[in-house]
C-alpha cells in the first residue's frame, strides 16, 4: 500500500511538472506572438510619426489657409512628443524602428512638396484624413491584439489624440471643399 501511495504521489509530481512545462511553453509562445505584434505596431507607429512630422512642417511652410497651418503646427507638436516615447518603448522591447517614413508615405510627401497655396491646402487635408484613418485603424487593431502593458499604455494615451486629429482633418477638408465666398458682391 505504501508503495502505491509513493507511486501515486511521484506520478502526480511528474504530471504536474509536465503541466507546468506545457504552460510555460504556451506562455513563451504567447509572449513571442505578442512581441511580433509589438514590433509591427511600433514600426507602423514610428512610420506614421515620421510622416506626420514632415507633413506638419510642410503645412506651416506651404499653406495659404491659417487653419491648415494651425493643424499642421498641432500635428507637428504632438508627433514630435510621441516620437521619443516610441523610441523609448522600442529600445526597451529591443525593436529597431525605421528611420524614415517608408516609400509610400515618402511619395505622398513628394507630391505635397510641389504644391503651394490653396492647391496644397486641399491636398494636405485629403492626405491627412487618409493618414489619420490609417493610423487610427493601426492603433485600434493593436489595442485589440497587443497584450504588452507598455504598448497598451501608449495606445491608451495616443489613440484619442489621433481620433481628434482625424476629426479636425475631416472638418478642414469639408471647409476647404466649400466654394470660396471671395469675389462675390
From TrEMBL:
Matching entries from InterPro entries are given as:
DUF4142, Ferritin-like
Q: Which Gene3D superfamilies match?
A: 1.20.1260.10
Limits of the DUF4142 domain: 39-172
A Pfam family in this protein? DUF4142
What name does this protein carry? Answer: DUF4142 domain-containing protein
Question: What organism is listed for this UniProt entry?
Answer: Rufibacter glacialis
- Identify the taxonomic lineage of the organism of origin: Bacteria, Pseudomonadati, Bacteroidota, Cytophagia, Cytophagales
Amino acid at each position: 500500500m505504501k508503495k502505491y501511495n509513493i507511486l501515486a504521489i511521484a506520478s502526480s509530481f511528474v504530471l504536474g511538472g509536465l503541466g507546468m512545462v506545457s504552460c510555460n511553453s504556451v506562455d513563451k509562445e504567447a509572449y513571442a506572438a505578442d512581441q511580433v505584434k509589438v514590433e509591427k505596431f511600433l514600426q507602423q507607429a514610428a512610420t506614421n510619426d515620421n510622416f506626420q512630422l514632415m507633413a506638419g512642417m510642410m503645412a506651416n511652410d506651404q499653406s495659404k489657409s491659417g487653419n491648415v497651418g494651425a493643424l499642421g503646427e498641432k500635428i507637428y507638436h504632438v508627433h514630435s512628443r510621441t516620437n521619443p516615447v516610441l523610441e523609448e518603448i522600442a529600445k526597451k522591447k529591443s525593436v529597431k524602428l525605421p528611420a524614415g517614413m517608408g516609400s509610400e508615405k515618402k511619395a505622398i510627401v513628394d507630391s505635397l512638396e510641389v504644391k503651394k497655396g490653396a492647391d496644397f491646402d486641399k491636398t494636405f487635408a485629403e492626405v491627412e484624413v487618409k493618414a489619420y484613418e490609417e493610423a487610427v485603424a493601426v492603433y485600434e487593431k493593436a489595442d485589440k491584439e497587443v497584450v504588452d502593458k507598455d504598448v497598451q499604455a501608449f495606445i491608451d494615451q495616443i489613440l484619442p489624440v489621433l481620433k481628434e486629429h482625424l476629426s479636425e482633418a475631416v472638418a478642414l477638408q469639408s471647409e476647404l471643399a466649400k466654394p470660396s465666398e471671395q469675389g462675390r458682391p
